[in-house]
Automatic annotation (TrEMBL):
InterPro entries membership: Restrct_endonuc-II-like, Restrct_endonuc_IV_Mrr, tRNA_endonuc-like_dom_sf, Type_IV_Methyl-Rstrct_Enzyme
Protein name per the record: Restriction endonuclease
Gene Ontology BP term (one): DNA restriction-modification system
Domain annotation Restriction endonuclease type IV Mrr: ranges: 11-102
Length: 238
């Protein structure tokens, strides 16, 4: 809230106040979206979105649903709601299910948290790194996780083993095949050379199939672990 505003007397004042409070919570890039069609978002940050209501009527579930829908598919953005009045029980229950922080502000702009998520934000603001992080910032976690995950590393180890064995066998067969094909001592050796060619092709196909299967299993295990970690983090936030 700008220094000129001593009391909240309009919706614009309320939105500026919410943006200021969000910056104090660690969302350093929080800003008012301004007049016009905002799609349900009054204050925007790269890591959070908020809706602000300036009225005496109690806020219900539909208003919270509007904010949730406005976030669209960006699940990394936190949800915050500010109102000058209270919330219905249905709204509070809905906020818990979608992990939305609920606040009430007074005419001076001071906030009162209305659920656990809001109390946590006021007690422990998000870090500067978290509030300013962009989408690629999640990549180091993915790399670290992939290097420590037992399932993916097992798949990679299996692939390396198959690759080494396959290379040795293929080289030996290739030397023998070329010798027998271009300098056969008998018709029997020529037939054996053709048979070796068939075996080499079969081994190559088998190697490709097995390697792809191991890689697919590794990716599946990684996705399962990533989802488990995400659910564990969401549950811990509650």
């Amino acid at each position: 809230m700008s220094s000129e505003i001593e009391y909240i007397t309009s919706a614009e004042d309320a939105e500026e106040n919410a943006a200021e409070k969000m910056r104090a919570m660690g969302f350093t890039d929080a800003r008012v979206t301004g007049p016009g069609a905002d799609g349900g978002v009054d204050v925007w940050s790269r890591t959070a979105v908020a809706q602000v209501k300036w009225r005496s009527a109690q806020t219900g579930r539909p208003e919270l649903q509007q904010l949730y829908g406005a976030r669209a598919g960006d699940r990394d953005q936190r949800l915050l709601f500010f109102t000058a009045s209270g919330y219905s029980q249905a709204a509070i229950e809905y906020a818990k299910s979608v992990k939305m922080a609920l606040f009430i502000y007074d005419p001076l702009g001071e906030l009162t948290p209305c659920n656990k998520r809001a109390r946590k934000l006021l007690a422990a603001p998000v870090s500067t790194d978290e509030s300013s992080a962009s989408a690629p910032a999640g990549e180091p976690f993915e790399v670290t996780f992939a290097s420590k995950s037992s399932a993916p590393s097992g798949g990679g180890g299996g692939g390396g083993c198959f690759e080494t064995i396959g290379s040795v066998i293929a080289l030996s067969l290739a030397v023998k095949f070329l010798t027998m094909l271009f300098s056969p001592e008998s018709q029997t050796e020529f037939i054996i050379a053709i048979a070796l060619l068939v075996v080499m092709v079969a081994l190559g196909i088998t190697y490709v199939i097995v390697r792809r299967r191991l890689m697919a299993q590794g990716r599946e295990a990684m996705e399962q672990r990533r989802e488990a970690l995400r659910l564990e983090k969401e549950n811990s936030d509650d």
